[in-house]
Amino acid sequence: MGFTLVAPDQPKEACALLARSAPGEISVLAGGTDVLPDVEAGRVRPSRLLSLRRLPWRTLGWNGGSLTIGSTLPLREIEADPGVRERIPGLAQAVHAVGSLALRHRATLGGNLGRAAPTSDLLPILLTLDAVVNLVGVDASRSVPVDQFVVASRSTTLRPGELIASITIPEARPSQYVWQRVRPSNDISQVGVAAARASRPPYWRIALGGVVPRSIRLEGAERLLPAVRPLVSELEAAAALAARLAPFATDKRASEAYRRQLVGILVRRAVASISPPIVPPVGVA
Amino acid sequence: MIRSDLLAKASGATEFGTDLAEPEMLWAALVLAPIAHGRIRRVDLSKARAMPGVHAVVGAEETARLLGPGAGDPERPLFPSTEVRYRGQPLAAVAASSLAEARAAARAVQMEFDPLPIAGDLEEVVAEWPGSEAGSDPRMIAHVRASNGDLGEEFRLAEFVHAETYRTNGVAQVALEPHACVAKVDVGRWFVRTSTQTPFGIREDASSILGVPEASLVVEGSWVGGGFGGKTAALVEPYALLLSAATGRWVRLSLSYTEEFVLGRSTLPAVVRLESAVRAGRVTARRVRLLLDTGASLPGRDFATGYAIGFLLGPYRSDAFDIEGYAVRTNKPPFGPHRAPFAPQCSFVADSHMDSIARRLGVDPVAFRLAHVWRAGDVTPLGQAVGPFGLAECLEKAGALLAIWRRELPTADGFGLGVGCGYWSTNAGAGGEALLRLSPNELTIDQGEREIGSGSVVRGLVAVAERVLKIPSDAVRVGYSDTSRAPFDSGVFGSRTVGALGQAVEKAARRLATELGRRLGTSDPATLARDDDQLVAISGAVRRPVRELLTSEELRAGGLEFPGQHAAPPGRIDDSRVGAGTFYPYTDFTGAAHVALVHVDRATGAVRVLRYAAFHDAGVVIDPATFRAQVEGGVAMGLGSALTEETLWGPDGRLLNPSLLDYRIPTLGEVPPIEVHAVPGHPGAGPFGAKGLGEPPIIPVPAAVANAVADATGARVREMPLTPERVARTLNLLASGGTGRG
Questions:
Q1: Which of the residues B19, B271, B305, B478 has the least number of beta carbons within 10 Å of its own beta carbon?
Q2: Do domains B15-116+194-252 and B341-427+585-730 have the same CATH topology?
């Protein structure tokens, strides 16, 4: 289990190190909450760990309505940020849903995305916020929509020698992340639902976690919702469609039938907390 | 006052089993069966032997060579030679220079099997539901039955018969420290240092498994990182000893956490059917049938079915009853004892059933229980005298608190309140001898148990000495020795430490007090106090340093010594009520009534426990802080059994969730504020009237939670744990029948 730890302070240097290394020889270390258990268990046997801790990426900054979060900022600092809590509540809720408090003091947004953590609680909300992943490489930088970045559990479109520098959320949106678990305080979510309302059409984004191979948007359900407050009947229709379309399977955490039940409930709750539905007066169909 | 073991534990200085190490030791790994049932065609160790760093690889053949032909218990071979009976059964063991090399060599062992059909699912047996003739069914390794009264007549006269079927699932041990030991065999001395609740029990067990006389075996307990019953029988020790015999070196064997889940001895699923005849607001007769999955347990070694049968009627009067249980053999690892073996599950069944009858009758569930509950002077269904027993008083107090909480209950949908009852008998086990040694500045309690975390040894025994001698607690030291030197005691299990070994300490302390009084020239017993760093003996106005009261011979020997013994006369069962099987007439009954306030999400089925109270008859409480901590810990653990903890088994006999990720113990986030109340006035046979408290706090929890869920929703969940999906299914929330367990 012997490895050496390298901690460059220049992004280009880090990318060069990565580019020069053969696959499997080096592992990237951000918070370490995902990779270190793999090293400990012998699932990976890198000879070097590339630590990102000295890179200038522990940042969080607003540019008007747009938020950019450095990839190595611990999750705890995101959920504790008053601006995030007020302007993008769904992001604070999703970050709060990850692991335990102790873990969130180490774990990072970049690590969660870069490792394409299975059944991520973060990917659904990032999909609804149209988040963009900013990458640096040896020769060039590029930005990729999160939808095109995470392909599947443990699979991304990161190229050799590239690192995640930051994640940009282009617009602060009213948003919500709700989940269901066997053990509420710390568990893998059986189902997670994120919802957000954009300022321009198409207004609604609804995304689903707890599905394989990756979280997805429920665009059919999104289209059933109007710009502002939905009617109860519209919300019910969207929730029912979401429950019908969700690509669920039965596993040891939940049955397919239970997950379908949950999706309907969680879509209803997430949307309603952003825009309380209009209850028609009695007698109106 | 801070408990004497806590600073070292909090700072990481304590050496637990997993910290044990010796210079130049070898590391061991077990080769585990990759199938649940099959004939062994070949276990080829040659490739493993050739791996780097390997010192020894032993299987069935080598074991016979090392121990001598026919040595050891043929029913419990270290490695089977013909048939694998559960997935994970050890087939060989490796000792190597490093853990990585040992594990690599274990993976290199080549194995071939002829698969046999896997008996895994209790429900297949339930589908046929055996009658009383099933005793000859080879799947049943034990049959127990007890009955009394004219059942037929009572069922004929009944206004209605309340019939229900309940299911429980397996609970794993989840001590944070897995089984671990270091061993060394040296010219006929077989020594093992191990994390155990029962050093003498390990000696007896290892002796039987290895065929080595007890006189040649020495077991030294280490500090224990949690023991809930899984560390009461030999598990890693015989393998480490065998590998040391093969190599002549110190050998360390520690299970990985995955192995601990598989081999660490879990409870397993059960199905219970109950029928109660009800007339004039009372249960007049009961018929109960139990099927208990005991895994690959051996015939004659099942203890659990007899335990369970006793608990399934609850602490309630039953003049007419017929109760019958079968231990069902499956291809899972053998069933093991876990904190109050099977009593929380039985309380869930028995007390949910009582609550369910009360609701059907439309009467107050607490009042209904009070009309049936045992009181001092009653006898159990098996005819055993209950003795001093405060459960009725616990229930009355629980009912009064429930009424207050009911008035404060939010009016929103989904809130509910429930009561759960449980009982236990605690004066168990053979032996219990302690040796007190008074030196000029310290009192030592030499004894044969190890502290497992509850405080029963480091605090409980010390508190007894303090009460008798008035000695300051930091002048009392608990001495731990190996089995070649310590006074015999059967160990920490069955909530027996304070009640049993505490008696021995009390008797020795009283003799010491009397002798010191005599040496002071008074007829009264003396007490002890400290003056600078010296102890002084006091009786009335007379006061002298202990140093001056000891003879020069006593000073040379380390102090003035007095032994004390505990004796536990077993209770008496009415044999005419026993139809088959073994029952355990332990004495000193303790009772507890718990109250839970829950919220149920009526859309998702998610249950949160928001408030909790526990009322315990623990006889005379001799250390209030330890009492409170023990009840809080038991409730927290019980909430896990009630809501989230269950082992999941695949059709191939594989444990599907052998990790803390998917086997969910509660975190502090699941534990609400807990009120803890002692209900005095019903003394036990322990020192000053103490009763045991190790196990009772976990027993009523699942019932209290399930009854609160029934109160909140009107729906009865008849399977534990009450996971969100299970509750949702009971509330008929699912569009189509789910198959997952969730």
A1: B19
A2: no
In this predicted structure, the answer to whether residue B736 has a pLDDT above a threshold of 50 is no
pLDDT at A177: 98
Is A183 touching B (CB cutoff 8 A)?
A: yes
Rounded Cα distance, B415 and B426, in Å: 35
Rounded to whole angstroms, how far apart are CA atoms B724 and B740? 12
Give the separation between CA B23 and CA B241, rounded to whole angstroms. 17
A186 touches chain B (CB under 8 A): yes
Peptide bond into B487 cis (omega under 30): no
Domain formed by B433-565, architecture: 2-Layer Sandwich (3.30)
Q: Which two tokens stand for residue B51?
A: 């791996």
d(CA B638, nearest CA chain A) in Å: 14
Residues whose CB is less than 8 angstroms from the CB of residue B286 and which lie 6 or more positions away in sequence, other chains included: B274, B275, B276, B277, B313, B318, B320, B321, B322, B323
**Chain B residues contacting A via beta carbons under 8 Å:** 100, 603-604, 606, 608, 643-644, 648, 656-657, 661-662, 664, 666-670, 723-725, 728-729, 733-742
Radius of gyration of chain B from its Cα atoms, rounded to whole angstroms: 27
- Comparing CB atoms, the residue among B669, B739, B742 nearest residue A182 is B742
What the block records as the tokens of B497 is 């430490």
| Cβ(B420)–Cβ(B395) below 8 Å | no
- Which residue on chain A is closest to B733 by alpha carbon? A261
Neighbour-count burial for B124-150, b at 16+ CB within 10 Å, e otherwise? ebbeeebeeebeeeeebbbbbbbbbbe
Residue A262: list chain B partners with CB under 8 A: 604
- Give chain A positions within 8 Å (CB) of B102: none
Q: Tell me which DSSP letter residue B111 carries.
A: E
Residue B133: pLDDT over 80: no
B170 closest CA partner among B701, B705, B641, B666: B641
Q: Tell me the mean pLDDT in the region B604-611.
A: 98
Res B649: pLDDT: 94
Q: What is the pLDDT of residues A49-58, one digit of tens each?
A: 999 999 999 9
- Beta carbons of A134 and A110 less than 8 angstroms apart: no
Q: Count CA atoms closer than 13 A to B75's CA, side-chain side.
A: 8
ipTM of the complex: 0.93
Q: What are the residues whose beta carbons fall under 8 Å from the beta carbon of B139, sequence distance 6 or more?
A: B119, B125, B328, B329
- Considering only the beta carbons, identify the residue of B100, B670, B728 that sits closest to A258: B728
Q: Which residues of A177-199 are buried (b: 16+ CB within 10 A; e: fewer)?
A: bbbbbbbbebbbbbbbbbbbbbe
Separation between Cα atoms, residue B192 and residue B207, nearest integer Å = 12
In this predicted model, what pLDDT tens digit does every residue of B625-647 receive, in sequence order? 999 999 999 999 999 999 999 99
Q: What is the pLDDT of residues A3-53, one digit of tens each?
A: 999 999 999 999 999 999 988 899 999 999 999 999 988 889 999 999 999
Residue B211: predicted pLDDT: 96
Domain ranges of chain B: 15-116+194-252, 341-427+585-730, 433-565
Question: What's the fold here for domain B341-427+585-730?
Answer: Aldehyde Oxidoreductase; domain 4 (3.30.365)
With respect to CATH, is domain B15-116+194-252 assigned 3.90.1170.50?
yes
pLDDT of A24 = 86
Share of chain A above pLDDT 70, in %: 99
Q: What is the DSSP letter of B133?
A: G
Confidence band for B738, pLDDT divided at 50, 70 and 90 = very low
- Tokens read off for A24: 């499997």
User: How far is CA B173 from each of CA B237, B435, B492, rounded to the nearest angstrom?
Assistant: 18, 32, 16
Query: What integer best gives the mean pLDDT of chain B?
Result: 94
- Residues B310 and B318: beta-carbon distance below 8 Å: no
Could you say which of A185, A253, A260 has the minimum Cβ distance to residue B670? A185
Q: Which residues pair with B194 in a beta bridge?
A: B181, B221
